Structure to design on (250 residues):
């Protein structure tokens, strides 16, 4: 066990100062890793459940028949997946646990966040950066969604699933420029980068939003809001996030 508090990384960015810190929680007797943007907490290793479920629920919406090589034994290594927003790495790490995933493109706007993983600062995400299926792309997810796509080497490339965890919610965005993404036009531009039957899944810190669900239904053929509950060790009760899963027709 190291120091009770340590700032592992800090950098000024166009949207504010982002930092990664580790602190020892004396009550829980665990090391807690936290990401802050200025004074705003973005994520904590105390609450990874919904980030994990973002990958599980999103990929569960894809059947083996959706993959181009579905005749392979057990449907292995057939799905091309994008994760928007790297953070502590729970969503990306969980996506790699699905053996159908053949390639994982992680789109992250801040190079320092990618560097945290390359330097091995986050022990619970071990193996993410070294997995041969993983490729980090330093880019603005929202700009890429509205342009030629997420793979700079293959403009127009389409994917089986896009899993997004950047903003707090469709209504509570980190930067005003993100708001247009959560409109019918913004989601249609995203859908162009999905294969037939492709899935878009989104993490949200807010309860299910009926207005946003209607927006999803305008663009996708099937859409559901999943409430993910989890124990909150700080309050002794339960907390909840929302995972939206929307799918195009096959």
């Amino acid at each position: 066990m190291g120091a009770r508090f340590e700032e592992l990384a800090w950098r000024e960015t166009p949207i504010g100062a982002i930092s990664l810190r580790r602190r020892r929680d004396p009550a829980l007797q665990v090391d807690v890793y936290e990401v802050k943007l200025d004074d705003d907490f973005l994520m904590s290793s105390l609450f990874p459940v919904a980030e994990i479920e973002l990958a599980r629920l999103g990929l569960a919406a894809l059947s083996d028949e959706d993959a181009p090589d579905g005749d392979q034994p057990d449907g292995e290594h057939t799905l091309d997946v994008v994760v928007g927003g790297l953070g502590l790495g729970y969503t990306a790490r969980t996506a790699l646990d699905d053996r159908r995933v053949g390639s994982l493109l992680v789109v992250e706007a801040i190079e320092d966040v990618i560097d945290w993983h390359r330097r091995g600062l986050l022990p619970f995400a071990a193996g993410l950066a070294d997995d041969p299926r993983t490729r980090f792309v330093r880019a603005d997810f929202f700009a890429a969604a509205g342009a030629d796509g997420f793979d700079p080497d293959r403009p127009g490339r389409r994917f089986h699933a896009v899993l997004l965890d950047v903003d707090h919610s469709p209504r509570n965005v980190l930067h005003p420029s993100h708001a247009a993404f959560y409109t019918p036009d913004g989601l249609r531009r995203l859908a162009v980068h999905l294969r037939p039957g492709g899935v878009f899944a989104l993490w949200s810190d807010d309860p299910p939003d009926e207005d946003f669900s209607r927006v999803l239904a305008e663009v996708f053929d099937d859409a559901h809001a999943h409430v993910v509950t989890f124990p909150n060790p700080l309050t002794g009760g339960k907390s909840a996030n929302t995972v939206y899963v929307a799918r195009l027709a096959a």
